[in-house]
Structure formats: C-alpha cells, structure tokens
TrEMBL record, chain A:
PANTHER family: ABC TRANSPORTER SUBSTRATE-BINDING PROTEIN. It holds the Pfam family Bmp. It comes from the Bacteria. It comes from Chelatococcus albus. The keyword Signal applies. Keywords: Signal. CDD domains: PBP1_BMP-like. Residues 1-23 form the signal peptide. This is BMP family ABC transporter substrate-binding protein. Residues 27-307 form the ABC transporter substrate-binding protein PnrA-like domain. The keyword Oxidoreductase does not apply.
From TrEMBL, chain B:
It is found in: Cell membrane. It comes from the Bacteria. It holds the Pfam family BPD_transp_2. Keywords: Cell membrane, Membrane, Transmembrane, Transmembrane helix. It comes from Chelatococcus albus. The chain crosses the membrane at residues 21-43, 63-81, 93-110, 116-139, 148-166, 199-217, 246-264, 276-292, 299-320, 326-345. This is ABC transporter permease. CDD domains: TM_PBP1_transp_TpRbsC_like. It is a multi-pass membrane protein. The keyword tRNA processing does not apply.
C-alpha cells in the first residue's frame, strides 16, 4: 500500500515536472516568405503548409513567419528567426539560398529547409516540386481549348524552373496540336499584379485566347476572365477569382512535406536531403477541371494518371532545341533531373527567343 | 470657406527643434492606435518594435548595417534637394555603382590580385554612380529636360542592364544557369569590424559621408551657393552663381554616393551580383533625406529610425504576427507627421471666409 502511494506520488510528481518541461520543448518553426501571405499564390500556399503543421501537430509546435522579405536583404530576417529559438526554418524562395547557407553556418543546431535551391549542408535541406508535370497537362488542355491556335505564357524570370515549365507546357500542347503557337512575356517579378495584368493583356491583344502564368498573383487569370478568354490558376486554386476562365490550376501542396519534416525534427530523425516531388507525391495537385468539354477533361485526367504512374514523362526523349539539335538524353528514356533543373533552352517550335 | 497657409513672421528655435520630436511622438501614437485596432496591445508592440531592438546588441548592429546604404544615399540626395533639383533615380545610380565595382571583383576572381582590388572597386563604384547621375543633370542643363523623369527612367535602364549581365556574360558557370555571378573573393569583400557579426567597414563610410557633408554644407562657399540656389534662385543668379555647374556638381555627388552605397552593399553584404541587389534603398533614401530634413546629422538619425522600423517590423511579425504592411503604413505616417510638423512650424493655418459665397463651391 505504502509503495503504491509512493508510486502514485512519484508519477504525479513526474507529471507535474513533465508538464512545463514539455511545454518548454515546443518546437518553434519559422518561415520566410518572398511575397505577402495574401498573394493567393506562392507565399499563400507555403503559409497553408505552415497552418497544416499547426493543425496536425497542435501544441507540440509553435510557428511564425516573416512576409515580403526582399531576397537581397533576407539574411537578417532569417537570423532573427534562428536567434529567437526557431529550430526549423523554411526559407521559401530561390534567392534566399546564400543567406540561408550563411545563417546555417552560424547556427549549426538549427535545421533549415530551402525551397528550390541546389546547395545543401549538414543542416540545410532543399526541396522543390515538379510543377512541369502539371504544366504538361495544362498545355494539352490549352491546345484543345484554343480557337486561334495561339496560347500565351506570363513568366516571372527566365530562370531554369520557369523555362522548364514553358517547355513542358509547349510539349503538352504540341502533343495534341502540332501546329500550336506559343507567345511568352516576362514581367521580371514574382509578384506584381499590375505588371502581371499588363503582360496578360499584351498577350491577349496578340490573339492569344488561352493564357497561363508563372507568377504569383491571380491578375493574369482575372485579365483573361475580363476578356472572356481562358486561363489557368497558379500555385493555389484560384477559381473564385475567375469562375468562368479557370480551366484548372497547378496547386503547390507543401502541407504533407512540411508536416513530415516537422515530425522528423520532433522525433530526431531529420537529416539534410533533397526532395523533388510531383503528382505522385501529392506535392503537385491539379484543381478540378472546369469550363471545358467532357472529352478534354477526360484527356487531362488520363494524362495526369499517366504522369503519376510514371508511364508518361513530359521530357521524354528525343527532345529538340529550337535550332533543331537533339538534346543528349541523360536520364534513360527522358531528360535527367539535372538537365531539367538547369534547363536554359526553348524546345523546337517555340516561336520566341529565350532572353539570355 | 477655405484653408490658407500663411508664413509665420518669426519661428522660435525651440519650435524648430521640438517639431520633429513632436512628430515622432504623434506617429507612435497613431501607430499605437492602428495596433490596438488590430487587437494587439500597443505597449507590447512598442516594446517589440522599438525598445527590444534598441537594447539588443545584435539588433543594434543590424540597425547600423541596414541604415548604412540609406544614409549614404540620403546624404547625397540632400545636396540635390537643397538645390531644388530632384534626383529620383538614386536606385539606378546605386545599381550602376554596384555593377562598375563588381566588374573588377569578377575580373580578378580567382587570381592572386592583392589589397588594391577593394579600394579600386569602391572608386569604380563612386565613378559609375556619378556618371549615371550626370546623365539627367546634363540633359537638364543642356536641353532643359526634367531631371525627375530622366533620373527615374534611368533606374529601369540600370536594373535591366544588371539583369542582362547576371543572366549573360557574368553568370556563374557552375550555378545551374541561375542568374547570379560567382561569389566574390576575400580580396573583393569588405572587411568585417569585430568578429562574427555583419558590421562591415561600409558603416564608417556612411559616418564619414555625413561628417564631410556637414562641413561642406555649413562651412564652404559651395555649400552656401547650394542653399542660395535652392532657396532663392533669382538671388543666386544676381550673385553670379552658375546654376549649371551647381546642377552637375550635386548630381555627381549624389550619384557617386549612391554608387558607393551600391558597391558597399554588394561587396559587404550580399557577396555576389544578383538580378536584385536592393530592396528599394534608392527610393527609401528619399524618405530618409526628408525625415532628416536634408541635414546630414538629421539624416544619420533618420536612417537609423527607418532601419528600426524594418527590424522592429520583422520582430513584430515573428512574435505578434503583425503584417508587413503595418511597417509600410508606419513609415508613411512618420513621413507625413514630420513634413506636417515642419510646415506647421513655418506656416500657420488661416481660415478664409468668403462673405456671401460662404459654403458654396468656388466658381
């Protein structure tokens, strides 16, 4: 009896001690966003991931973020997170690569996750999504839906990720209409609704009737809606911004990855790694296929399934450059990941010059 | 009925001194109201926004680092604005300075080039910025083109030039085709003061620039000429001051300092060239120049206040989840209050009634 009482007291004491201790050990997870959380695109989706962590892991974590952090002045913001006790920090734009590495060196016990970069360290992981898979599907839809045979693309910067997206989009379009034409406009910004809309209007004025974008705001989509044309959502499902124009949207789904990485820190299994997930890993998700006839939606679904199962590769060899030369095939029956990550050429048939 | 601003006959020095302090207090009060409307405690916000950064050595150092380019550029701009010449294109001069200085850093990359590289880079930065600044000045004095438009438009030219360089000839061959140059060698990197931190030598340049500007502005004929040209252009003409020379000189000075800020930032902070090397320092510095009332010491202070709003704003985002827009709103309130206080010190408001027509819209 005495022992039992003693035992109960011990357990109670432990519980009391453990209580505040576990509250103290709440893992702080920080985020750096390149745009405002309200952009309804890139940063918004990363913030959805942050919320997913909070929802999934509840009181074991605490999250914070800094938004609209200019890439040229990001080191301080990243360090501010590191020195305020954040043990896992997601820096969600390519331009944060060097600053992330610098801060990571100073804080070896903090774990960093850098989106879309290519430099890793003991405490720096990288991750990105194979958006080009979704681009291929939208390319097919665009070519099917276009009446003029001219489709348009509003790009941010001519960096490899954007160029690969353009190529995948065009290859998809070509696969259903070999005569399709593509026009590209770069707005030199990830998030600038005014410029994005101007770019979109310029394309529509040139006879484009289906538009897609690799910028973060719904502005191009809205421009298409206003002119009664068609377009695709970017990063998040933007259907409420363009109920008549959105055909589908390529959704960035960081939720699963962010929750998994946070769990890994919590159970001590976190290791620096590189992740490049696509449709199969649910990192890229297609929004419902809307505003299109049944047969086009069916084709899109089939393509989606084929890419997911690995049967269809958007960059299947042979791939030809604009000048007609064939690209060396380094990834078996398709281009290798490295070739896609460093892509700096347009494929044959794109009637435009890549800014170099 | 309408409001009229009437110049005050006399302004007490005390009022001049108290005006900016009053403006500061008023802006904090207005900021506090916004914070309260957003459901946070204004006192906690004040603590996190202002008091904590000011009592933390790390934040203080960051404050100085952030203020450095702002002060350098704003000191230069004060020369232009004093002479009533409107250089809106410091951002472009900053970029061109960074490009010119970096050209040498990249040319000597991987070589054994010695200690001469860094001073030469800084010199090229100043030269590049000054030449870029002279373009609108020349167009103004030669053809009477508005320097406001040309200096602003040259910002985009400079940015696109940088964009071209980092995507093309200066692209890091090992960088997966991403638009950025190689990282600078140690010989091309500004030394850090103390160890481990980010406090680079550029900070001293900002202090020196403010000190020299103060001497030039108050103790030299050139400074006097400048003030007269700005305040009373007719009197300046009668005195035989050459407006054209003044215009060229102030644009060269402000361009040169902006160029210096550019190369200092790239070589001391960023360590490589990228498509974007400034979060708008050239434009923020315009605010800083006016917040500091175009006085070098005022600008020093204003640069630190502006840096504080950025750093405190980040801290407030992290711990209070207050949005970045609040930082921008607060900066706007601050500028508005300072300018309003200035106006109210020099002018008084008079209500003018218009007899029978009172209350009607003027014809």
């Amino acid at each position: 009896m005495k022992r039992a009482v003693l035992g109960a007291v011990a357990v109670a004491a432990l519980a009391i001690m453990a209580g505040p201790a576990s509250a103290q050990q709440k893992l702080k997870v920080g985020f750096i966003y390149v745009g405002p959380v309200g952009d309804h695109g890139w940063s918004y989706q990363h913030d959805q991931g942050r919320k997913a962590i909070e929802k999934e892991l509840g009181d074991r974590v605490e999250t914070s973020y800094v938004e609209s952090v200019p890439e040229a002045d990001s080191e301080r913001a990243i360090e501010q997170l590191a020195r305020t006790g954040h043990k896992l920090i997601f820096t969600t734009s390519f331009g944060y690569m060097e600053p992330t590495l610098k801060v990571a060196k100073k804080y070896p016990n903090v774990m960093f996750e850098h989106a879309t970069g290519f430099k890793r360290e003991k405490n720096v992981s990288t991750y990105a999504a194979r958006f080009y898979e979704g681009r291929y599907i939208s390319g097919q839809i665009a070519a099917k839906m276009s009446k003029t045979g001219v489709i348009g693309y509003v790009g941010a910067y001519p960096i490899p990720e954007v160029v690969a997206g353009i190529n995948a989009y065009f290859l998809g379009a070509q696969s259903v209409n070999p005569a399709v034409k593509l026009k590209v406009v770069y707005v030199n910004s990830w998030y600038d609704p005014g410029k994005e809309a101007d770019g979109a209007k310029a394309l529509l004025d040139q006879g484009v009737d289906v538009l897609t974008q690799h910028t973060d705001s719904p502005a191009p989509l809205q421009a298409a809606e206003a002119r009664g044309k068609l377009a695709f959502g970017q990063a998040s499902d933007m259907i409420k911004f363009a109920p008549k124009a959105q055909l589908t949207a390529i959704i960035d789904n960081w939720n699963d990855y962010y929750v998994a990485r946070t769990k890994a820190v919590l159970d001590g299994s976190w290791k620096a790694q590189d992740t490049w997930g696509g449709l199969a890993q649910h990192m890229v998700v297609m929004a419902p296929y809307t505003n299109m006839p049944e047969d086009v939606a069916k084709l899109a679904k089939e393509t989606e399934e084929a890419i997911r199962s690995g049967k269809l590769k958007p960059f299947k060899c042979p791939v030809f450059k604009q000048d007609g030369s064939q690209v060396e095939c380094k990834g078996g029956d398709g281009l290798s990941d490295e070739q896609i990550l460093g892509m700096n050429f347009y494929v044959k048939g794109i009637d435009d010059k890549l800014p170099q | 009925m309408r409001l009229e601003l009437v110049p005050r006959a006399t302004v007490s020095p005390a009022a001049r001194l108290l005006a900016p302090i009053g403006a500061l207090i008023l802006s904090f009060a207005l900021g506090g109201i916004i914070v309260a409307l957003m459901g946070r405690s204004p006192l906690t916000a004040l603590d996190i926004y202002v008091l904590q950064p000011l009592s933390d050595p790390w934040a203080l150092q960051e404050l100085v680092v952030k203020a450095t380019p702002l002060v350098l550029i704003a000191v230069g701009l004060s020369f232009c604005f004093r002479a009533s010449l409107w250089n809106i294109g410091a951002e472009g001069q900053y970029v061109v300075g960074a490009i010119c200085g970096s050209a040498l850093a990249l040319a000597t990359h991987g070589t054994e080039a010695g200690a001469w590289v860094l001073p030469a880079m800084l010199g090229l930065g100043i030269l590049g910025g000054a030449l870029w600044g002279l373009v609108p000045a020349f167009l103004r004095v030669r053809f009477g083109v508005s320097e406001i438009l040309t200096s602003l438009m040259l910002v985009y030219v400079a940015e696109l030039m940088l964009d071209y360089l980092v995507r093309g000839p200066w692209r890091d061959p090992k960088g997966f085709n991403f638009p950025q140059s190689v990282g600078f060698d140690t010989a091309a990197t500004l030394p850090i003061l103390g160890d481990g931190g980010r406090l680079h030598v550029g900070v001293l340049f900002a202090l020196a620039a403010a000190a020299v500007a103060w001497v030039v502005m108050t103790r030299t004929l050139f400074g006097y000429r400048l003030r007269v040209t700005g305040d009373a252009p007719r009197a300046a003409r009668f005195a035989g001051f050459d407006e054209r020379r003044t215009a060229l000189a102030v644009f060269a000075i402000s361009g040169g300092l902006a160029g210096l800020a550019g190369i200092v930032e790239v070589s001391g902070q960023i360590g490589q060239l990228k498509p974007s090397i400034s979060p708008g320092y050239g434009f923020t510095a315009i605010t800083v120049a006016f917040l500091g009332r175009l006085h070098p010491l005022g600008i020093l202070f204003a640069g630190l206040v502006m840096a504080l709003t950025f750093i405190g704003g980040e801290a407030a985002q992290i711990s209070l989840r207050l949005p970045f827009d609040l930082t921008k709103a607060f900066q706007g309130i601050l500028l508005f209050c300072v300018l309003a206080a200035d106006a109210l010190v020099s002018y008084r408001i008079r209500l003018v009634r218009r007899g029978v027509l009172a209350g009607r819209a003027p014809a």
